[in-house]
Records
---
Amino acid sequence: MADQTIFARLKEDHDKHRTMLDLIDKTHGDSDGREELFTRFKTEVTAHAAAEEETLYATMLADPDLRDKSQHSVAEHKEIEDCLEELEEMDFSSTGWLARYRTMKDRYLHHIEEEEDEMFVAAAKGLTRETEKQLAKTFEKRKPAELEMAAE
Ligand SMILES: [Fe+2]
Ligand SMILES: [Fe+2]
């Protein structure tokens, strides 16, 4: 959507992530779909986080009042990335995989909820509508490039 703000655009991705998380949760250890779905989720979330850092969080980082919030979210991205790497290296059919997956899932759901309820609200106070739309356009440009990099 041409007139979308960065917040609406990011929320759109978050909703997609929520759906993917539930789909993976329903897979079984021996199902082929688990690894494939997980790989798609990991690529998608890695690209989302990178493009989010290049747009919203870079802008927030430049504002002394929002710097701490920005750093908090970026640190969480790193934690989630580490969990995703760990899951990727585990045996997908092992009994421990789903338990570890659910820990990551809870963390990620907490992360995006905090972004929507706290980070976006704080950031919106300092941004003009024009900047919010401009950031969405930049995000839209960066996401495909980040997806390619994340898939490598
Ligand atoms: Fe994020
Ligand atoms: Fe996000």
Note: Residues 62 and 116 are 20 Å apart (CA to CA).
---
Amino acid sequence: MSNATDSLYAAWKKIYPRYQLGFFRHLRSVLYTVELVIFFFLPFLRWERPGGLPNQAVLFDLPARKFYIFDLMIWPQDIFLLAFLLIAAALGLFFITALGGRVFCGYMCIQTVWTDLLLHVELFFEGNRKQRIKLDQAPWSGKKWLTKIGKHAVWLLLCAATGVAFVSYFMDAPTFWQQLLAGTLPTPALFTIAFLTVTTYLMAGFAREQVCIYMCPYARFQGAMFDEDTMIVAYHPEIGEPRESNRRIRTAQREQGEKVGECIDCEACVTVCPTGIDIRNGQQYECITCAACIDACDSVRERLNASRRTLICYTSLREMRGGKTRWLRARVYYYSLLLAIFLGGIAYYLNHHASVELTVIAQRQPMYILQSDGGIQNNFTVRVLNMTSSRQTYSLSVSGIADATLTVAAVSETNAQGHPVLTVDPGSVTPFTAYLRQPGQRVEPGSVPIHFTLTAQSVDGGTATYHSSFARP
Ligand code: SF4
Ligand code: SF4
């Protein structure tokens, strides 16, 4: 047995993917560009919110524990929503995988997008595949140093920009930039930028396909979502085999009536593959279904003026066996049903979740205050959390106690029923001190349960209640 067979580790071989234009390359370029533009520029999108709320369209304000996503405000008590969103995203991924295989990996995954971005820089500095291989094999010279330094400098710049863009989702972007330029950024922000710069540089610049093959858990469990109707990129051996690269031999074989495959063994499909596999060896878990090999083979066959039948294409195992792909099937129904349930639940919650929260804490030092007329007064700390994006006014009333009068410190405004009117800014909690008095002639012994009700004067403000008790001797 050879040493290579004895070893449990495959030696790492640098992959030099060839850049290939074609329909799927254009499609990927459009999607990658949209993703990059959204990622880098979304923090600069302004979104008007009244009442002094931040005007950044997407802001994850960790110190204030509030997330702003356009008109949506997520509070700490809504944090389970993020778990629901993650579950919905996972179900969405399962759904896409059941239908289209690993299209997410090939067209949307950040690892693929950033690797492709850095590969473009490599192409710019080091040239095409052959030139890159030649450069790496050449001894170190002044030109080689300059080329490599130029490439790595731009890589680092792009990776640092990635870190900067990421952090600006967590701070007001213009303020963040001012602090960045003035060198006054807080340490956690600097650490995050440095961390993302290094990880992006390593993962997208060096590890590349190793991330997809060895590190990504999705690559490992996606097989469980596959069935014979899932879209895969596959080579048609019945058309391509037996392959022969020599044109003369092919012609001679044809003349002798031998079967000659359509594959000319040019390896164009292998040299474009970002994960370095040969799709002609059958379906492999390393394949991220980017379709670069389809573009490569199609362009070869176009040059050969070959018949329209493609050797490599998106297909399914069922189709390869001569059947017809079934798009609508049980697992697609299950995933879409579960996805609809989760997305529906999130939409329902967002439409119906409370717009205001009321907390009433009875001040029990002292338990109650005896008035000169024999009446009893209890003091309460009332906290009102306005979860809408506009300033709200609320009337505060109390029930469960006869003839009691409710007043609030520093609040003189009352509504038509004489209830105090409280004003609270958007997205903030305001504490008030409330006094509840019951006249002497109505005082009975023992404490009594009472109910505070907060009612917004506008339709979107909502209502809230809080149960407490009124202490008496
Ligand atoms: S085999 Fe083809 S589709 Fe799969 S990763 Fe390689 S180039 Fe992309
Ligand atoms: S690109 Fe097409 S013709 Fe060339 S080796 Fe691959 S499958 Fe064969």
Note: The pocket of iron/sulfur cluster (ligand 1) is lined by residues 233, 272-275, 277, 279, 287-293 (CB under 6 Å).
---
Amino acid sequence: MSILSLDVGGSKLLLARFSQGEIVEERQIPTLAHEGREALLKRMVELILSMKEDASSIGLLIPGVIYQNSYVRKCSNLPLNDFDLKAFIEKETGLSAFVGNDVSFALYGEWKKRGGHFNNVVGLFAGSGLGGGLILGGELYSGQGAAGEIGHMNYIPEGRSCGCGGWGCYESYVAKSGMLQRLEEFAQEGGNSILLEGRKSGEMLDSRVLAKGYKLGDSLAVELFEESARALGSAIASLHAVLEPDLFILGGGVVDDYGEEYFDEVNKWAQILVMPSMANTLKIETSMLKGKAGIYGGYYFAKGK
Ligand SMILES: [Zn+2]
């Protein structure tokens, strides 16, 4: 009996079939979110049915606010707001469906892959945005539904604007959306950087280009790297004071592509900023599953954890 896991991303739908804990088949198609809800749901169902075979259940990862592993409350880049996705998928495919926030599922995947040993784990995933997830007391913690929005804790009052509608959030300094603001400001000031070469205004930054710029010593790339690592270290230090989790797990394109030097810099700032009497319990690791963490989380959920 196999289990499916579908990552419903802003640009692609990635479906994986798991057998005995490992991915045995994958298929990917573009999301085409601009075509609207009906078209998107039709594409999702067709993709799922094309790989259903002997599957009994499916996990669905959504980049948005999800209630009761079922209902999509808000999802800014997909036309699925206020929709009972679980009921729809179950009716159309005959599979048991479990819907979750993509970052929460990514943290869950990382946690289970490590054997689920720790009771309290905080996940921070830095890519275009800064996603957060919490496992408290051995369970994913979602508060009243939307908890874990670590990227939207305030870092700098009156700081950069943020995609959430607020100001000065950690996301605006750690993640690429914030780096992009600084880049455009820099371009307007007439600055020179290899990060500006061959790119169109407003286009999202590529983590690999950021990493390359940093390695080459480009001054703007070094500034963005240092600012991001310092902000992430600050977020970790503050969260450690509140939750003192057993482990922090860092992932996402920014963390993966910058590599070891970034991890060391984040760790350095977390150690500088952590409450001194709690410094000895601070433990940080990087993602084991990289870009597949969410897909694994969806699988573990659909499997019955
Ligand atoms: Zn925000």
Note: The CA atoms of residues 229 and 262 lie 6 Å apart.
